[in-house]
Structures are given as structure tokens and as C-alpha cells.
Specification:
The complex is a heterodimer of chains A (85) and B (544). Chain A is of the alpha+beta class. Helix content of chain A is 39%, strand content 25%. Chain A has helices at 16-26, 47-53, 70-84, and strands spanning 2-7, 32-36, 41-43, 60-66. Chain A starts with a strand and ends with a helix. With 544 residues, chain B is of the alpha/beta class. Chain A: Residues 1-85 form the HPr domain.
């Protein structure tokens, strides 16, 4: 399993558009991908789950990935977070 | 006359007959279904059809309002593909043996409630997106009765709220404006209205009924007021306001493609300030003649780690190519004070504005500076790039910065990598020290750009974020204006150009003063360009 953390820079937090971009990227992989906040967990392939976390600017999230393409998925999701959030 | 007040979405004035927006009512009443599996299949085929409709809307939006705004229809497709949403509908059909319409309606309420009870007002506003996608499935289930937009011609639409997909279908040539009793200025609908340029007021809190149909209405997108069946005096007043608003917009529109020159032939370069290569389309749209301040901080602040040479090179190259050969002045790292990044260790300081920031960081950590200069040099062959150092207070700092730049160039020569050897090197004049010795500094560089925000703060010793000091703060303080004038004169004595890139550059009350002082370039935020050009073209320096 791969795991990393990321702190949200975007003033609007994970709003609909970047949530959509993340879900779209996550769906390209076979691995299961989760997004965790301090007290909640969501499936990164499900838009309502991601939006429902209501992640705000300055909040640190953890991404957990496990599956056959986890290395590639981790790189992709990380750079996706960096360029959109 | 009925007057209601809501929130302004787009500053424009619309006057015309009102039309109440009608949606076909779709029954979502529950009834028992014998064959639940067939009903689930019915739901799925409606869902797939709805997704393909959204793909069509996405393609349409892409050409009308651009990728950023079109994204909402991509998100709507994801919502219809969300396993949680699908499960909610399927489970309801199976568990209760009820029709797909009722199950979709229940799922819609469940997810809309989930969003509308969130703390964040932005997320609350997303409930409308859930209702929009659910309604789309219901329309397909009921045989595809959609809203007939062709019947709305030359009217102001009154609705409870408009879904993004509905707004997108409004033709700005046929729809004068709209007013909604619900909705928020954060909604995709509001954003679309702004992009399409439709006068709009939302969230009036007053539901309008069929009795307003056909009555004259006025939507004032400047004040958020909507007048229905206005009296003569109001109508006359608003017609005048509308004419003035249109005339002003047209005057600005007329400024496009014109020279930024006074009536007696004094020409100024009118550039834009930007913080990200994504802002380039805005510069082009507002007819910026170049970029006078490209802040490179976004590369550092929007990342989790130091940006690599390659990442920086790509960003600079994109900006240069976007500006198609027009000048782009890129300011090197100006971090510190109020701008900080997690990975970037900066000690807590008693006085951050007077602390380790900007060029002081670069000269303390030359490796960091070299990476940026290398990326800039490499990008310089893709357009007309000028590099600018911030927070300079002495000739020595310029020497040290230029020495590092020379080292970078030597290394590139060794590696056989191309760069523009004539790239201009300039400095920001934003400390009183630099302004006072600008005669000496002018001998060392190719240009000056006066950063009036910091120059004002340091000259007056007033923190501009400190609201309690407003009564002491005079943005036109003579000390600041004299320093600016002196800097321009000293620059010209040494034969270099001098620009202004702070907020004062866009202050129309000072335009004449700056032009009389001899300023060569003004760099302002993109929306301020056309009003400033209009001001410049109205001036005649030979008079008075």
C-alpha cells in the first residue's frame, strides 16, 4: 500500500471542480484509492464521497492507495493535487 | 410597482417584459412495481441517456463559455455515475418495490440534504446540482419533456432558481436578464451568467407568480434591485442608467486595439500584472500590451516542495508563448513576510515585513536562486523576457544578483543550452532606500519598476493590512509621489525606462501626475487596463 499526505492550498478547499478532476484521475486506476481527513474516510472514485468530506484550505488529507498499479496511481494523484489544489 | 432586492451576479441593466419560467411538472408519486428488476433496468437506461445528454451540453459549453465553466457538466456526469447515488436509487426500487421516478426523487433529496447541511456555504449551494441531475433522469423517464427555451424571446426570466444546464441554454441575444428567488452568487448558474454577460439578480427571497407574466420589469445588476411594473419616474431613471452603463461599456470596448497615447502624442506602455500563466487569456481579452509584473510566487506557494527547474521553465515558457512575442517582466521569488509555504523554512520574525524576504532569501540561498535563473534563461528564447529583482536596497545587492546570473549563463554556455543574451535585467523600486539612491542604481540595470504598495508602506511606516490606521493613511502622500517622480527622473538620466506596477498605477486620479513625471510604462490588473487607456487618451499634457 502507498500512502502520502497533502495540505490543501486552494482558498476554496476541495470544491466541485477539483473534486471532479481527482475522481476522473482516480477512476483511471485499478487500485482502490481512499481520501482520509482527521475523522472521515472517502472513496476517491466517488464524487459525492469526496465532496461530502468538505475539505478546506489548510487541512491535511491522507491518500491511501492499494492495488496492482499503486505506484503509478500515487504519482498521478499527487501531481494532480499539486497542480489543482 | 413592486421592488425586490437580491444579490448582484452581473453588473448590467435589463429592461423588458417579464416571463415566468415554466418547468413541466413530472410526477414522482410512488406506486408499486411488480417487476423490480425491469424497473432497475429502466432507471439505468434513463441514467445513461442523461449522461449522454450531459456530454452534449459539455461540448456545447466548451465552445460557448470555455473549459473551466464547462467542467460543471463533466461533474454532473460523474454524479450520475457515482456508485453511492446509483445504489441509493436501486436499493429503494428493490426494497420498496416502487417506481424509478419515486426512487430517484428520494435519492435526490437524500444527497441534496447531505450537501445542504454541510457547514460550507459553497457546498450547500451544490444541492442544486443534485436536483438538476435527478431532474434530468426524471425527464428522460417521463418521455423526454424538457424545457422549451425557444418561447422565451426578448424577456426577463423570473424563476425560483435556474439549473446550470438551463442557464447555459439561455441565449444572451434573446434573454435580457433573469431574477431568481433562491440561488446564490457562488452557484454555477451565477458564474455562467457572468461569463455570458446576462444581467442577473439572485436570492431575492420573494417567489414570483404568474401575475408578473408580461409585466415590465427592470433588473439592476449594480444594486441588486428588481422593479416590477415600475412607475414612470423609476423607468425613466433606469433607462438613463442603462444608457450610461451601455455607453461606458462601449467606450471601454472602443479602447481595444487603440494606442495608449495622450491627445498630444505622449505614449505609455500599458501592461498587466499577473500571478499565474492561467491568467494570460484575461490579459489578451483586456488588450494588455505586455506583462509588467509576472509574480513567480505561485510556483512556490502552490507546491508541496521546491519547484524544479523544469516545472519553472514550463510555466515561464507558457507565459512567453501565450503573450506571442510581447514583453513579459518576470519578478524573481518574492516570498517571506505574509507569503509562506510549508516546506520553506522561514523563522518566526518580530517584523516580517522588515525581515528575511525576497532578494534577501535568494542571496542567502544562492542554489535556490540559480534554479530559478536557469529556468528563466532557458525560457528567454521563447519570447521577450525581462527579469526583475524585488526588494533591492543597494548597488551591492544588484552586483551579487548579476554575478549569480552570470554564473548561470556561463554554465549554460558550457552545456551548449540556448538563452537570450540580451534579456533585460531590472529591479523593483519598493524601498525608500532604493528610490533615494535611484541615480546610482540606474547605472546598474536596464529598467526600474516602482512597486507602490511596499514603497508606500515603508515610506509612511504604515502597515496597510492594519485597518485601525486608516485615518493616518493617505495613498497620495506627497512623500511617496516625490519618491516616484525622483525615481523616474533618475532612471531617465541614465537612459533606462521606468514603470509603475503597484496599485497606484491604476489610480486614475494620479495618471496625469505620472505621465507628467515621464513614466514609460504602467502595469495594472487586467480589468483596469481599458479604463486606464481611456483615461490616458483623454489627457492633453501640453495644456495647463
Amino acid at each position: 500500500m502507498k500512502e502520502f499526505t497533502y495540505t490543501i492550498n486552494d482558498p476554496a478547499g476541495i470544491h466541485a471542480r477539483p473534486a471532479g478532476i481527482l475522481v476522473k484521475e482516480a477512476k483511471k486506476f485499478e487500485s482502490s484509492i481512499s481520501i482520509l481527513t482527521a475523522n472521515q474516510k472517502g472513496d476517491l472514485k466517488r464524487i459525492f464521497a469526496v465532496m461530502g468530506l468538505g475539505v478546506k484550505q489548510g487541512q491535511t488529507i491522507t491518500i491511501q492507495i492499494s492495488g496492482p498499479d499503486e505506484d503509478h496511481a500515487a504519482d498521478t494523484i499527487e501531481s494532480c493535487l499539486k497542480s489543482n489544489l | 410597482m413592486l421592488t425586490v432586492k437580491g444579490k448582484c451576479v452581473f453588473a448590467g441593466i435589463a429592461i423588458g417584459p417579464m416571463a415566468l419560467f415554466h418547468r413541466s411538472t413530472i410526477s414522482t408519486a410512488a406506486h408499486t412495481i411488480e417487476n423490480v428488476e425491469a424497473e432497475a433496468v429502466r432507471f439505468h437506461s434513463a441514467r445513461k441517456k442523461a449522461i449522454s445528454q450531459l456530454q452534449d451540453l459539455y461540448d456545447k459549453a466548451l465552445t460557448r463559455v470555455g473549459k473551466e465553466q464547462a467542467a460543471v457538466f463533466e461533474i454532473h456526469q460523474m454524479m450520475l455515475d457515482d456508485p453511492d447515488y446509483i445504489e441509493a436509487v436501486e436499493d429503494t426500487i428493490r426494497a420498496n418495490s416502487i417506481n424509478a421516478e419515486a426512487a430517484v426523487d428520494q435519492a435526490s433529496k437524500k444527497f441534496a440534504d447531505m450537501l445542504s447541511t454541510m457547514e460550507d456555504t459553497y457546498m450547500q449551494a451544490r444541492a442544486i446540482d443534485v436536483k438538476d441531475i435527478s431532474r434530468r433522469i426524471l425527464e428522460v423517464l417521463s418521455g423526454g419533456i424538457g424545457v422549451d427555451f425557444t418561447k422565451y424571446n426578448h424577456v426577463i426570466i423570473a424563476a425560483d432558481d435556474l439549473a446550470p444546464s438551463e442557464t447555459l441554454q439561455l441565449d444572451p441575444d434573446k434573454i435580457l436578464g433573469f431574477v431568481t428567488s433562491e440561488g446564490s452568487t457562488n452557484s454555477h448558474t451565477a458564474i455562467l451568467a457572468r461569463t455570458l454577460g446576462i444581467a442577473a439578480v439572485v436570492n431575492t427571497g420573494t417567489a414570483l407568480h404568474t401575475d408578473v407574466d408580461g409585466k415590465t420589469a427592470i433588473v439592476d445588476g449594480y444594486t441588486g434591485l428588481v422593479y416590477i411594473d415600475p412607475d414612470e419616474a423609476t423607468l425613466t431613471k433606469m433607462q438613463q442608467k442603462q444608457a450610461e452603463s451601455l455607453a461606458y461599456k462601449k467606450q471601454l470596448e472602443d479602447m481595444r486595439g487603440k494606442e495608449s497615447m495622450t491627445q498630444d502624442g505622449y505614449k505609455v506602455e500599458l501592461f498587466a500584472n499577473v500571478g499565474n500563466p492561467n491568467n494570460i487569456p484575461q490579459v489578451i481579452m483586456n488588450d494588455g500590451e505586455g506583462i509588467g509584473l509576472f509574480r513567480s510566487e505561485f510556483l512556490y506557494l502552490e507546491h508541496n516542495d521546491y519547484p524544479t527547474e523544469e516545472e519553472q521553465f514550463e510555466a515561464y515558457k507558457k507565459a512567453l508563448e501565450g503573450m506571442k512575442g510581447k514583453k513579459v517582466v518576470i519578478r524573481t521569488l518574492d516570498i517571506g513576510a505574509d507569503k509562506k509555504a510549508d516546506y520553506f523554512p522561514l523563522a518566526q520574525e518580530e517584523n516580517p515585513a522588515l525581515g528575511l524576504r525576497a532578494i534577501r532569501i535568494c542571496l542567502t540561498r544562492p542554489e535556490l536562486f540559480k534554479t530559478q535563473l536557469r529556468a528563466l534563461c532557458r525560457a528567454s528564447v521563447f519570447g521577450k523576457l525581462s527579469v526583475m529583482f524585488p526588494m533591492i536596497i543597494s548597488s551591492d545587492e544588484i552586483h551579487r544578483s548579476k554575478d549569480i546570473l552570470q554564473e548561470v549563463r556561463n554554465q549554460l554556455d558550457k552545456e551548449g543550452i540556448a538563452y537570450d543574451p540580451n534579456m533585460e535585467v531590472g529591479i523593483m523600486i519598493e524601498t525608500p532606500a532604493a528610490a533615494i539612491i535611484s541615480d546610482e542604481l540606474a547605472k546598474e540595470v536596464d529598467f526600474f519598476s516602482i512597486g507602490t504598495n511596499d514603497l508606500t508602506q515603508y515610506t509612511l511606516a504604515i502597515d496597510r493590512q492594519h485597518t485601525g490606521l486608516d485615518k493616518f493613511f493617505n495613498p497620495h502622500h506627497p512623500a511617496v509621489l516625490r519618491l516616484i517622480k525622483q525615481t523616474i527622473e533618475n532612471g531617465h538620466k541614465a537612459g533606462i525606462w521606468v514603470g509603475i506596477c503597484g496599485e497606484l498605477g491604476a489610480d486614475l486620479e494620479l495618471t496625469e501626475y505620472f505621465l507628467r513625471a515621464g513614466v514609460d510604462e504602467l502595469s495594472v490588473s487586467p480589468p483596469a487596463i481599458l479604463p486606464l487607456r481611456k483615461k490616458i487618451r483623454s489627457l492633453n499634457l501640453s495644456q495647463k
